[in-house]
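Q: What changes when 2-acetamido-2-deoxy-beta-D-glucopyranose is included in the input?
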Amino acid sequence: MVMPMNFLVLLVLFMISFSCVKAIPTYNVVQLGAKTDGRTDSTKAFLTAWANACSSDQPAVIYVPQGRYLIGNVQFSGKCNNNHIMIRIYGTLVAPSDYNVIGNSGTWIMFESVIGITISGGTLDGQGSSLWACKNAGQNCPTGASTLGFSNSENIVISGLKSLNSQLFHIYINGCQNVNMRGVSIAAASNSPNTDGIHVQLSTGVTIRRATIKTGDDCISIGPGASNLWFEHIICGPGHGISIGSLGKDSQEQGVQNVTVKTVTFIGTQNGFRIKTWGRQSNGFVRGVLFQGATMVNAYNPIVIDQNYCPSQSDCPGKVSGVKINGVTYSNIYGSSASEVAVKFDCSSEYPCSDIRLENVQLTYQNQPAVSSCTNAAGTSYGDVKPSSCL
Ligand SMILES: *[C@@H]1O[C@H](CO)[C@@H](O)[C@H](O)[C@H]1NC(C)=O
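A: The predicted holo structure follows.
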């Protein structure tokens, strides 16, 4: 008997639709043994979930239900068999309260050589306060671990994640391409040492949108070899502001280029927009930077380029920075400075800053005109610029 043609077509259609609706494999950490009490070590369940998701030959989900999960140091490494792993976190991951457990590991939660990872939701609690106390007391303490790190990875999305009380940096991006963060919120005490909010280096194509960052060091810091960055709608403070640098620590170093930072509110920060380089020889550079649209609420140094950074005052012969800074625009920046010098360009005597632009910048100090100061800096000002430009 010959099968009717339309029966065959139906059969094929049925098989196709069946394979399409097949559920995405989902690995629930609780089903893999994690405990929600915040006290039982659940590291193994998370590593098992990762091993399953990473070896899946189709997109996979790691699901973290509500609750608190104590986890130690973890490394989620590629290369995986698929390029779409979604980590949905409804709960809080808690670091060990004894900082010695992860304090020398570099990073608490580390992703290495992965492609196509989305982290959505969740809270990461680094429990850093006892380590900060140790450091602030000048005792001998471990360096601490950064909370979340991505290295040598691409196509990363981080959305709606909260990071609390990291021991060291909250989030860092190193050697990555195409990273999107949105709705990230970060909080640590204003006196917590080295708790940079988000650090980006040796990476290209990094966007950060709608981030709220309160911390003890830079809200966002940009290291060598970062390019094509786009940061928008950032609220920073307390913290040390948004910094490019420190750059030029090494004599051979990749430059920073094509950076846009838009719509930022700085509240009581040490700096607003800062570029900072060591006062020593280097082949590094900074070019093509746009700082556009900021409200300063008592930022101590709202606009600052400091090319004389030399913290221990040694190893900086002649204090001449080799980092070449060219093409930096500050536009539509308003508000108050907590120090009299609201605009400070202190550039390298050997490689003066060039093509610095100020466009509609109005900053006051105690409701009085603030002051600007230029050393080895050239450029132009447009529109209403107060304090009047020294370029
Ligand atoms: C600069 O970076 C943006 C992303 O922030 C990107 O869209 C643009 O193509 C880059 N420009 C160049 C010349 O690479």
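Observations recorded in class: The chain has three helices and 29 strands.
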